[in-house]
């Protein structure tokens, strides 16, 4: 089995550790850590003009790893190539003047990851479908720019609470394992999260429709309350490549037949049998009007404020 690289984004309270230049990086004041990723830590920061932003700093452990360093800095190029309001805005990539450690300057998001959200509340079906539709629309722009995200999952979807009317309520984040469709295949490296990797991704050959499969996995779990497959790494590899999963209605009676058909198509073993990400966005939008997400998320935002003030 080739080695596997799994990227995760977990928003947790963390204890600050000493950083280069005493928490100041090239004029950016680091205020507090707000997230841990697979290869770095994200900080709440203040730009020289006082604007609140986010700084993602590479873990010093990987400073001398050219592959990880290159992938880390490539996140800026990917985000710049696929501009879309539903994709995380990465404004700059640089290296610290004192230690040469790579960092990214990013927009600061107000909300929480979809994983955090579903861990504490049961989302109504309308919100699930509307969120998935916005995710699909954003990732379709990534595909149009020639990139595959390779790690679509609830912890890489950020649900926004404070937005302008008519703008996306979700952001797709973490391009740490994204790759260009023409990038050479490395048969020794599998990148992604095992619970939602398409058969071809297990073979080190991800393509845009691998993200469609991952979105299908995410929808399956959100609708049924159970992951598509579970088990050890070898068991997951075999299941995703060979096993036929139970239909969503077998685990969640009464699921909308249109949604079930779309999920089943997205989970096809053969990529050519899956819809495109643009088709996914359109189909999901027809199942549940996208405006329904606004009401659902405004309610969730109020619940979050009440919990925070309790």
Strand percent estimate: 15-25%
Low-confidence stretches: 1-22
Distance between the termini: 49 Å
Query: What's the alpha carbon Rg, rounded to whole Å?
Result: 19 Å
- Overall SS class: alpha+beta
| Percent in helix | 25-40%
Q: What's the helix-strand series?
A: EEHEEEEHEEEHHEEEEEHHHHHHH
Largest sheet: 7 strands, antiparallel
Element layout with pairings:
Elements: E1 3-5, E2 9-10, H1 20-23, E3 24-25, E4 28-37, E5 40-46, E6 52-58, H2 66-81, E7 90-95, E8 102-106, E9 111-113, H3 114-120, H4 125-144, E10 147-148, E11 157-160, E12 170-172, E13 179-180, E14 189-191, H5 199-202, H6 208-224, H7 233-242, H8 248-251, H9 257-266, H10 277-287, H11 292-309
Parallel strand pairs: 1-14
Antiparallel strand pairs: 2-4, 3-4, 4-5, 5-6, 6-8, 7-8, 9-11, 10-13, 11-12
Short overview:
The protein is of the alpha+beta class. Helix content is 39%, strand content 19%.
Structural summary, described in words:
By secondary structure, the protein is an alpha+beta fold. It has eleven helices and 14 strands. It has helices spanning 20-23, 66-81, 114-120, 125-144, 199-202, 208-224, 233-242, 248-251, 257-266, 277-287, 292-309; strands at residues 3-5, 9-10, 24-25, 28-37, 40-46, 52-58, 90-95, 102-106, 111-113, 147-148, 157-160, 170-172, 179-180, 189-191. Strands 2, 3, 4, 5, 6, 7 and 8 form a seven-stranded antiparallel sheet that branches. A three-stranded antiparallel sheet has the order 9-11-12. A two-stranded parallel sheet has the order 1-14. A hairpin with a 6-residue loop joins strand 7 and strand 8 (102-106). The protein is globular, with a radius of gyration of 19 Å.
């Amino acid at each position: 089995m080739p080695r596997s690289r799994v990227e995760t984004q977990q928003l947790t309270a963390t204890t600050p550790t000493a950083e280069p230049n005493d928490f100041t990086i090239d004029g950016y004041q680091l205020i507090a850590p707000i997230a841990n990723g697979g290869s770095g830590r994200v900080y709440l920061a203040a730009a020289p003009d006082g604007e609140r932003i986010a700084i993602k700093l590479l873990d010093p452990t990987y400073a001398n790893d050219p592959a990880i360093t290159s992938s880390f800095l490539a996140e800026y190029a990917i985000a710049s190539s696929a501009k879309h309001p539903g994709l995380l805005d990465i404004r700059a990539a640089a290296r610290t003047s004192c230690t040469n450690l790579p960092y990214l300057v990013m927009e600061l998001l107000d909300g929480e990851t979809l994983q955090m959200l579903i861990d504490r509340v049961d989302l109504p079906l309308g919100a699930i479908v509307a969120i998935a539709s916005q995710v699909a629309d954003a990732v379709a722009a990534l595909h149009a720019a020639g990139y595959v995200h390779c790690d679509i999952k609830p912890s890489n979807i950020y649900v926004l609470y404070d937005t302008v009317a008519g703008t996306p309520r979700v952001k797709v984040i973490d391009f740490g394992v994204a790759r260009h469709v023409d990038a050479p295949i490395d048969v020794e490296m599998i990148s992604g999260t095992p619970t939602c990797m398409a058969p071809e991704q297990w073979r080190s050959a991800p393509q845009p429709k691998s993200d469609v499969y991952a979105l299908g996995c995410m929808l399956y779990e959100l609708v049924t309350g159970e992951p598509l497959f579970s088990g050890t790494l070898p068991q997951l590899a075999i299941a995703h490549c060979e096993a036929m999963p139970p239909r969503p209605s077998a685990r969640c009676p009464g699921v909308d037949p249109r949604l079930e058909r779309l999920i089943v198509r997205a989970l096809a073993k053969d990529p050519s049998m899956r819809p495109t990400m643009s088709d996914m966005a359109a189909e999901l939008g027809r199942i549940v009007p996208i405006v329904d997400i606004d009401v659902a998320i405004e309610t969730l935002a109020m619940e979050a404020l009440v919990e925070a003030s309790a």
